[in-house]
């Protein structure tokens, strides 16, 4: 049975959690609390027992393909990305060997940034002609991760937004299990200098958000404590049902009267399209084919772009399409750890 849009992320998270509980065996890691625990890995040192005792140890990390991880450590600009703090790190179990260790975002098996670096930091991938053709990359350039764009605002200032990867004249937004592309207040989005030139605002997806916290019925103390009707003739279970209906009406009535603000859906995409326009770049969303909700959200934004000149520089690629042109050892890693294999429907020849 087809999943609702909101269920695709949860389903993928469950699959990745199960795969990584298997993958993590024998590797330093912890698991978050809950029914579908997130696996979070640590860096460690290893060496091949079949080699001489004098053989140098290898730097490893359970969340990374070994050749990619070594390449990351050899480039300070790439290695800096490993220090990005995990937003929910305080809620994770402490690492027994180092209780003061701070968990990093790229330690998580759900990290799209880690997946992105696993692919593009693996030696040989950047020089693969098929990879370059898929992404439209030319020239001898090296990717930058967490690149700070300068998107001009109407105020004359700049939004130094972070882009997951810049590779030459290509900007990339990578997604895996994230719920969506975020929402943002209309006044913020419309504050970008080129917003009206690039987008037809009437075609962009929007939503209304309540700006106050949702209250429970008991917080409406005066009304909550009053009789809503004469219940003397009702049975006990009927009294309870009437009470619940009355209390639910208190909450829904307050929400109907609450102040709302207009927001644009898929803010990250809008912002990155503007970043691509400002820098003369193309922009690609790379996501999983198991997330048709994200692909649909991206198409909704692309439909609102006014000019063909910008639209032709926007693209979408799935990890499954990309894996076909990657080295065999990397394909095996991605298949085991992420369940990423060739696409269910073969792409048209490019």
How does this structure look, described?
The strands form five sheets. Strands 5-8-9-13-14 form a five-stranded mixed sheet, sandwiched between helices. By secondary structure, the protein is α+β, with helices and mostly antiparallel strands. It is globular and about 85 Å long. About 1% of the residues have low confidence.
Sequence of secondary-structure elements: HEEEEHHHHEEEEEEHHEHHEHEHHEHH
Tally the structural domains: 2
> Helicity range of the residues?
25-40%
As a percent range, the share of strand residues is 15-25%
**Low-confidence segments:** 50-54
Shape: globular
Record keyword descriptors for this entry.
about 350 residues, alpha+beta, five-stranded mixed β-sheet, three-stranded antiparallel β-sheet
What does this entry show, briefly?
By secondary structure, this protein is α+β, with helices and mostly antiparallel strands.
Summarize the topology.
Layout: H1 7-23, E1 29-31, E2 39-41, E3 43-46, E4 58-61, H2 66-74, H3 76-79, H4 112-120, H5 129-135, E5 144-148, E6 151-152, E7 158-159, E8 162-167, E9 170-174, E10 183-185, H6 186-189, H7 195-198, E11 206-210, H8 221-224, H9 236-257, E12 260-265, H10 267-279, E13 282-287, H11 292-303, H12 308-311, E14 314-318, H13 319-323, H14 328-338
Parallel strand pairs: 9-13, 13-14
Antiparallel strand pairs: 1-2, 3-4, 5-8, 6-7, 8-9, 10-12, 11-12
């Amino acid at each position: 049975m087809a999943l609702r849009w909101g269920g695709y992320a949860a389903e993928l998270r469950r699959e990745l959690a199960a795969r990584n509980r298997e993958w993590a065996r024998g590797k330093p890691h912890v698991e978050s609390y809950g029914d579908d625990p997130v696996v979070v890995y640590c860096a460690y040192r290893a060496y091949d027992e079949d080699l001489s005792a004098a053989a140098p140890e290898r730097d490893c990390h359970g969340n990374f393909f070994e050749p990619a991880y070594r390449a990351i450590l050899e480039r300070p600009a790439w290695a800096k990305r490993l220090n990005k703090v995990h937003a929910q790190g305080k809620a994770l179990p402490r690492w027994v060997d180092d209780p003061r260790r701070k968990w990093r975002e790229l330690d998580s098996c759900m990290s799209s940034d880690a997946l992105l670096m696993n692919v593009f930091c693996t030696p040989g991938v950047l020089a693969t002609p098929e990879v370059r053709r898929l992404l439209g990359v030319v020239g001898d350039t090296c990717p930058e991760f967490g690149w700070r764009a300068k998107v001009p605002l109407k105020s004359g200032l700049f939004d130094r937004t972070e882009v997951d990867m810049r590779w030459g004249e290509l900007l990339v937004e990578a997604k895996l299990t994230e719920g969506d592309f975020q929402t943002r207040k209309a006044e913020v989005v419309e504050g970008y200098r080129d917003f009206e030139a690039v987008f037809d605002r009437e075609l962009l997806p929007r939503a209304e958000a309540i700006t106050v916290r949702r209250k429970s019925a008991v917080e409406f103390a005066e009304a909550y404590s009053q009789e809503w009707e004469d219940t003397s003739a009702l049975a006990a279970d009927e009294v309870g049902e009437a009470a619940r209906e009355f209390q639910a009406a208190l909450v829904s009535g307050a929400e109907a009267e609450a102040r709302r603000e207009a927001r644009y859906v898929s803010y990250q995409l809008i912002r990155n399209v503007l970043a691509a326009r400002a820098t003369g770049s193309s922009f690609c969303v790379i996501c999983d084919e198991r997330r048709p909700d994200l692909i649909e959200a991206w198409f909704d934004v692309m439909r609102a772009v006014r000019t063909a000149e910008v639209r032709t520089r926007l693209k979408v690629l799935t990890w499954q399409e990309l894996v076909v042109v990657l080295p065999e050892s990397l394909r095996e890693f991605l298949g085991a750890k992420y369940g990423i294999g060739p696409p269910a429907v073969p792409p048209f020849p490019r």
